[in-house]
């Protein structure tokens, strides 16, 4: 079992809608908690989290997200969800799992969403990145391996592999084979451990993250003080007022994030136009 002092490892799943984030989340936690399915529009609409004890005893907190960085969703919705996601990973992110699917073509949208992720969080995010490919079963039925599938891999993805230390895992989210289930989880957790070693055990955080954490800690402290100071009949009302104030502050942060997303998106579009005018693109220029 995990020792009480062992920190929770936050693992967030990101990627385009329909790539299999929720299915991968369920495989990692070994139960069906996140809703996964084939719908034309996004299945997961808000960030969700589930905490479990991983094989080996560490506690992992898996965060499933909607397609946050594909920018099909409106910036105000994305920004609120990113703030929620960061609040769910209070101590920071121990791994960011980019979920791709071998069942669909890797398109420019994948590249765009990775660029957006970096624009918002900086290139440092790549130090925490693991790429998961879903649909191992489909590769098997086509007599393909991940290596053969990736032999025609787009240039930007090759660069990502180099930058993220070639941390990639093939997932079989429909498998009934217990060995295969254990193996894929272990491969992922080995990468999470390698990320921890490489980053001296320090999880990824950034300015917005720290602000959210401070705000959450402030709320907890004031709730505790209210419990000590007020009569039982008044506490609920005070807590409600504190919660309203907390939500207002979180919304303010989401609005700040929304501005960053809008600017990032406009910059990105401008940059694409410049690069397209220059000839064939090699990779996202911010890496
Ligand atoms: N054959 C096969 N199908 C998979 C695999 N992983 C996911 N899928 C299917 O892919 C579809 C989409 O999966 P989801 O887990 O809902 O994808 P998502 O990324 O969470 O999608 P959104 O919540 O809409 O962003 C579902 O029909 C899954 O069953 C896999 O390893 N093999
Ligand atoms: Mg989902």
TrEMBL record:
InterPro entries, A to Z: G_AIG1, GIMA/IAN/Toc, P-loop_NTPase
Boundaries of every AIG1-type G domain copy: 6-213
Cross-referenced Pfam families: AIG1
Any GO molecular function: GTP binding
Keyword entries, A-Z: Coiled coil, GTP-binding, Nucleotide-binding
Superkingdom of the organism of origin: Eukaryota
Similarity field: Belongs to the TRAFAC class TrmE-Era-EngA-EngB-Septin-like GTPase superfamily. AIG1/Toc34/Toc159-like paraseptin GTPase family. IAN subfamily.
Protein name: Protein AIG1
Source organism per UniProt: Noccaea caerulescens (Alpine penny-cress)
């Amino acid at each position: 079992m995990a020792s009480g002092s062992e920190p929770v490892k936050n693992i967030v799943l990101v990627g385009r809608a329909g790539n299999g984030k929720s299915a991968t989340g369920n495989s990692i936690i070994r139960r069906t908690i996140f809703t996964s399915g084939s719908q034309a529009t996004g299945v997961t609409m808000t960030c969700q989290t589930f905490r479990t004890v991983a094989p080996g005893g560490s506690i992992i907190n898996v965060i499933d997200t909607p397609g946050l960085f594909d920018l099909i969703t409106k910036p105000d919705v994305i920004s609120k969800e990113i703030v929620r996601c960061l609040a769910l990973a209070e101590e920071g992110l121990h791994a960011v799992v980019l979920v791709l699917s071998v069942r669909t073509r890797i398109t420019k949208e994948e590249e765009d969403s990775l660029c957006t992720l970096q624009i918002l969080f900086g290139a440092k995010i790549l130090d925490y990145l693991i790429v998961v490919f879903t649909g191992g079963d489909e590769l098997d039925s086509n007599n393909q391996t991940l290596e053969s599938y990736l032999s025609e891999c787009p240039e930007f993805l090759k660069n990502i592999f180099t930058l993220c230390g070639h941390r990639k895992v093939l997932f079989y989210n429909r498998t009934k084979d217990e060995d295969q289930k254990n193996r894929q989880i272990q491969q992922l957790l080995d990468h999470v451990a390698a990320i921890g070693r490489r980053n001296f055990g320090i999880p990824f955080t950034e300015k917005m993250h720290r602000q959210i954490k401070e705000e959450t800690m402030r709320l907890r402290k004031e709730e505790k003080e209210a419990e000590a100071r007020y009569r039982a009949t008044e506490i609920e009302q005070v807590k409600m007022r504190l919660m309203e104030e907390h939500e207002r502050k979180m919304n303010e942060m989401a609005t700040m994030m929304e501005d960053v997303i809008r600017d990032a998106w406009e910059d990105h579009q401008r940059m694409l136009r410049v690069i397209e005018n220059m000839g064939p693109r090699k990779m996202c220029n911010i890496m």
